[in-house]
Automatic annotation (TrEMBL):
Keywords annotated in UniProt: ATP-binding, Kinase, Nucleotide-binding, Serine/threonine-protein kinase, Transferase
PROSITE patterns recorded: PROTEIN_KINASE_DOM, PROTEIN_KINASE_ST
Pfam families for the chain: Pkinase
Family from the record: Belongs to the protein kinase superfamily. NEK Ser/Thr protein kinase family. NIMA subfamily.
The name this protein goes by in its record: non-specific serine/threonine protein kinase
Entry GO MF terms: ATP binding; protein serine/threonine kinase activity
EC number: 2.7.11.1
SUPFAM superfamilies in UniProt: Protein kinase-like (PK-like)
Transmembrane segments: none
Keyword Nucleotide-binding attributed: yes
Reactions this protein catalyses: L-threonyl-[protein] + ATP = O-phospho-L-threonyl-[protein] + ADP + H(+); L-seryl-[protein] + ATP = O-phospho-L-seryl-[protein] + ADP + H(+)
Length: 271
């Protein structure tokens, strides 16, 4: 799709609208659906930079668990990225619906979803990219129910001696070191992965109930009610490895994905 003929695009639906006239739209293009993420030229610099950065990162990625980049084009008034269409929307909407119905997921489904996200994330980390805004709204669901990571606007390409103090990300999923403006690295995505894992199991955010509680309260790793949902008690391990304020206690993703019990939970070969 290198030579993108945007006059052949036909708008089907607007999927999401951002600030400053930016939008995500579903289009038909020669009989196939594509998604266009569009930003007007006259948007504020930071919004424009985010889309250009997303383009730079996505155009270098090629993995089944990362939303596929198909091309870009410059229209009269906007800059546009063309993406594959994830037919089943985002994981936030999925979790909201499941939560409203109190329809808990079985362990197999939880582990398949977390395995998909972890596979996308490790691919990014191995290419020195930190997502920095991992949250259910940025995880998309395809027609086969497999997940793909999306929204790389605030991702960061790390260089060996990089430390990053910019405060970015979404508060509910933001690792404590990011929220407090300290240095952070790949493990900040691991925190967000842990929060999503907890939400997949419990259908609620682990810290919703503690909002407003005393700030000085001692941090405790969120506990999964594994009995209620018929999960194995070892699912708690995943929270213990990921939702840790202390970075020395929080595991690296590559080590998590080698750990025997995690592999067993994911139904992956253990040797
Ligand atoms: N390729 C896609 N397929 C299906 N839905 C998408 C796609 N890209 C984005 N969306 C929808 O649009 C929403 C916003 O897209 P996103 O890339 O996260 O942009 P933003 O920077 O505005 O958050 C997503 O949460 C999802 O619901
Ligand atoms: Mg988003």
């Amino acid at each position: 799709m290198d030579e993108f003929n945007y006059s052949a695009l036909h708008l089907h639906t607007i999927l999401a609208e951002g600030c400053f006239g930016s939008s995500v739209g579903l289009y038909q293009y020669y009989g196939q659906y594509v998604v266009i993420k569009s930003i007007p030229y006259d948007s504020p610099d930071y919004a424009y930079t985010a889309v250009l950065k997303e383009h730079m990162i996505l155009s270098r990625m090629n993995h089944p668990r990362i939303i596929q980049y198909l091309g870009y084009f410059q229209a009269a008034s906007s800059w546009n990225i063309v993406l594959e269409f994830a037919e089943r929307g985002n994981l936030a909407t999925f979790l909201e619906r499941r939560s409203a119905e109190r329809a808990f997921l079985n362990q197999h489904t939880v582990m398949a979803k977390i395995g998909d996200i972890a596979d996308g994330l490790i691919y990014l980390h191995q290419r020195n990219v930190i997502h920095r805004d991992l949250k259910p709204a940025n995880v998309l669901i395809c027609v086969d129910n497999r997940l793909k990571l999306a929204d790389f606007g605030i991702s960061k390409i790390m260089h060996d001696d990089d430390f990053n103090r910019t405060i970015v990300g979404t508060p509910l999923y933001m690792a404590p070191e990011v929220a407090s403006g300290k240095d952070y690295d790949y493990k900040s995505d691991v925190w967000a992965l842990g929060i999503i894992f907890y939400e997949l199991c419990m259908l609620e955010h682990p810290f919703v109930k503690s909002v407003g509680a005393g700030r000085k309260q001692k941090f405790r790793v969120p506990q999964i009610d594994w009995k209620r949902c018929g999960y194995s008690p070892t699912v708690q391990m995943l929270c213990d490895m990921t939702i840790q304020k202390d970075l020395t206690k929080r595991w690296k993703l590559e080590d998590i994905l080698k750990e025997y019990h995690v592999l067993q939970l994911m139904n992956r070969p253990t040797s």
